[in-house]
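TICKET: design request
STATUS: open
ATTACHED STRUCTURE:
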């Protein structure tokens, strides 16, 4: 993947209240919106056990996405915010 380029992930209207999984140039990503409506795109893999963040849920109160397996939450910048 070319690091320093913009890549279209989805149409804005496709990104609603659920995470959206996308595969771009062979890599898995997940896009989601925070409570302000800002779009974010992260690797689709939870660092804890490799779960698919795209199968998780958006957590608007934390501006985060949650892993469906153990509930680890990640902010739009990719930092882990919560470890239950």
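STATUS: resolved
RESOLUTION: sequence designed for all positions
ATTACHED SEQUENCE:
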């Amino acid at each position: 993947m070319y690091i320093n380029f913009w890549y279209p992930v989805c149409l804005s209207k496709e990104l609603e209240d659920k995470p959206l999984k996308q595969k771009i140039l062979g890599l898995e990503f997940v896009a989601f919106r925070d409570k302000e409506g800002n779009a974010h795109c992260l690797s689709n893999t939870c660092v804890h056990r490799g779960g698919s963040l795209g199968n998780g849920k958006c957590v608007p109160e934390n501006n985060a996405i949650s892993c469906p397996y153990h509930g680890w939450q990640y902010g739009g910048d990719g930092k882990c915010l919560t470890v239950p």
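CLOSING REMARK: The mean pLDDT is 92. The CA atoms of residues 72 and 83 lie 5 Å apart.
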